[in-house]
C-alpha cells in the first residue's frame, strides 16, 4: 500500500494517479476536510480532480502505519516537525515529494527522512509537474533519486504509471537542489514579469539562475548533468513560465506591488537557506541574494534589478 502524508494539491494529484493503479491512503490534518473528501471523492485543494475509489482519505496518521511506501508531500519547513509529532511510521521506502532547504539546519528532505525514519530507505521525487496535470492523467515525467540502486528500481516500477513516467538516478543531492533552487529563480522571474521588464529579462534570469543552481550543486558534490535534467532545467522551465507556479505567482505579485498570494511558497525560505549554504561553500548566488532581500522586504524590485545589473562584467 502507498501512503501519502500531505493532502495538499500535489499529494492529492499523486493520490489520483496512483489510485488508478491500486490502493492509496491519503492523509490530511483537517478531519472535516478529509471526511468530506472520503465521502464526496473531491477536495477543494484540487477541485477539478475526482479521487479514485481506491484512494482512502483520512485524518488519522495511524492509517498510514502499515504503508510500505510512504510519500512525504508536506511543506518543507514543516516536514521535520510533522514527523517528530507523529512518529509512528515504519515504511520500507520513504519518498520526499517536497522541494526546498530547511532553514537553520540547511538540510534537504532526505536528510530529515534519514533522521526521523531510520528504518526506511530515503528517496526523493521531483521534476516539472503541476498537480492538476498529474491528477488528470496528463503525461508527466519526474526524477526519482535514491542512493540504493535496487530500492530505486523497485520504487520506479511501483510508482510509474502509463502517464507518470519516472527516471531514476543515484544523485540525490542534485535532484534535491534542482527542485529547491529553481523555486528561487521562479520568484525572480515572476518579479521581472510583474514589474514589466519583459520576456528577455525573464530568459536572462532563467539562464543565469541555472548557472547559480549548477554552481552550488557541484560544490555540494552533485553531478552537473543532473541539473540539466528533469529536476533542474525541466522544472525551471515550467516553474518560471506559468502563474500556476506558486513561486512565480509570488514574484508576480511582488513585481506588481500587490499583496502576496495566501499559499505556501517554498522558494521564499529556500532563498535564505541557499545563501547560507552558498556562504559555507564560497559560492556566489546574486539572484538568490536579490530574491531573499525582495521577499524579506529589504529591497524593492527596482533595487534588486539594479543590484544585478550593476555587477561587474564577466565571461559566461
TrEMBL record:
Record: residues binding NAD(+): 6-11, 131, 246
GO MF annotations, alphabetized: glycerol-3-phosphate dehydrogenase (NAD+) activity; glycerol-3-phosphate dehydrogenase (NADP+) activity; NAD binding
Binding site for substrate: 99, 246-247
Keywords: Cytoplasm, Lipid biosynthesis, Lipid metabolism, NAD, NADP, Nucleotide-binding, Oxidoreductase, Phospholipid biosynthesis, Phospholipid metabolism
Predominant subcellular localization, coarse grouping: cytoplasm
Domain Glycerol-3-phosphate dehydrogenase NAD-dependent N-terminal, residue spans: 2-151
Subcellular location(s) of the protein: Cytoplasm
Sequence positions that bind NADPH: 10, 29, 99, 131, 246, 266
Cited function: Catalyzes the reduction of the glycolytic intermediate dihydroxyacetone phosphate (DHAP) to sn-glycerol 3-phosphate (G3P), the key precursor for phospholipid synthesis.
Protein name per UniProt: Glycerol-3-phosphate dehydrogenase [NAD(P)+]
Source organism phylogeny: Bacteria, Pseudomonadati, Pseudomonadota, Alphaproteobacteria, Rhodobacterales
Amino acid at each position: 500500500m502507498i501512503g501519502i502524508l500531505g493532502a495538499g494539491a500535489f499529494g492529492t494529484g499523486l493520490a489520483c494517479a496512483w489510485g488508478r493503479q491500486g490502493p492509496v491512503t491519503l492523509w490530511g490534518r483537517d478531519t472535516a476536510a478529509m471526511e468530506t473528501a472520503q465521502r464526496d471523492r473531491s477536495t477543494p485543494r484540487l477541485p477539478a480532480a475526482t479521487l479514485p475509489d481506491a484512494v482512502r482519505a483520512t485524518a488519522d496518521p495511524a492509517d498510514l502505519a502499515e504503508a510500505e511506501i510512504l510519500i512525504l508531500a508536506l511543506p518543507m519547513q514543516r516536514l521535520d516537525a510533522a514527523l517528530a509529532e507523529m512518529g509512528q511510521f515504519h515504511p520500507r521506502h520513504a519518498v520526499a515529494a517536497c522541494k526546498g532547504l530547511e532553514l537553520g539546519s540547511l538540510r534537504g528532505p532526505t536528510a530529515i527522512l534519514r533522521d526521523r525514519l531510520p528504518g526506511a530507505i530515503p528517496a526523493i521525487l521531483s521534476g516539472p509537474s503541476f498537480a492538476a496535470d498529474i491528477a488528470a492523467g496528463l503525461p508527466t515525467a519526474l526524477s526519482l533519486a535514491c542512493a540504493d540502486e535496487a530500492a530505486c528500481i523497485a520504487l520506479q516500477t511501483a510508482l510509474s504509471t502509463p502517464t507518470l513516467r519516472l527516471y531514476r538516478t543515484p544523485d540525490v543531492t542534485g535532484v534535491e537542489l534542482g527542485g529547491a533552487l529553481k523555486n528561487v529563480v521562479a520568484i525572480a522571474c515572476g518579479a521581472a514579469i510583474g514589474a514589466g521588464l519583459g520576456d528577455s529579462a525573464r530568459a536572462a534570469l532563467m539562464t543565469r539562475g541555472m548557472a547559480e543552481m549548477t554552481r552550488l550543486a557541484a560544490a555540494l558534490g552533485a553531478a552537473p548533468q543532473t541539473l540539466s535534467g528533469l529536476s533542474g532545467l525541466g522544472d525551471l522551465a515550467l516553474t518560471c513560465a506559468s502563474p500556476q507556479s506558486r513561486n512565480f505567482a509570488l514574484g508576480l505579485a511582488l513585481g506588481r506591488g500587490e499583496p502576496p498570494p495566501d499559499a505556501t511558497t517554498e522558494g521564499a525560505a529556500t532563498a535564505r537557506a541557499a545563501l547560507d549554504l552558498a556562504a559555507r561553500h564560497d559560492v556566489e548566488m546574486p539572484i538568490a541574494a536579490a530574491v531573499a532581500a525582495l521577499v524579506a522586504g529589504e529591497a524593492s524590485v527596482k533595487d534588486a534589478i539594479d543590484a544585478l545589473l550593476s555587477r561587474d562584467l564577466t565571461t559566461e
